[in-house]
Amino acid sequence: MESVGAEGASAAAPLNQWRHDAWKLFQFYLDKTTPHAVYRWVGTAILTFIYALRVFYVQGFYIITYGLGIYILNLLIGFLSPLVDPEVDHHSDGPMLPTKGSDEFKPFIRRLPEFKFWYAITKAVCIAFAMTFFSMFDVPVFWPILLCYWVVLFALTMKRQIMHMIKYKYIPFSVGKQKYSGKKSAASSSGSRAD
Length: 195
Prior knowledge:
Oligomer: single chain
Helix content: 55-70%
Strand content: under 5%
Number of helices: 6
Low-confidence stretches: 185-190
Structural class: mainly alpha
Shape: globular
Mean pLDDT: 82
């Protein structure tokens, strides 16, 4: 009996080794894409366009598309939200958003980093695309109703997120490097006194 178990384990060892090597190779190339954000997003946009063409061509899989839209909306909320929500965690030891103009500048730290956001969307689009090849996922529905549901859900969710941004005075995007302008204003005020 024990020899059968040993044979099964020795047969599984090459498969496990191959799976481990394939995962390491995938992780290596995934890590190499990290600094190339524009190319990553262009690739994801192309994949999404191919998925949309597939759904349009087949004229089905609207439930899959609706689920994909809900999932992406959920990811977007995590991407736009701060790591430490000031509404929930008032007394945190971690980085907090500045609440006054005199507070020290702290960069916006996302709950869902950009790379994980991109990776989750890309993986979801690939899974949804693969699901379009199985007819059991093609549930007949009236797609305009799903589209209306999604638009209303998107509008309500974004309204709530924007109100949260306004209430706690943060912008989830930073453009360029933050510059200190304290000396410039002091120099201009001293220059006006010299006149």
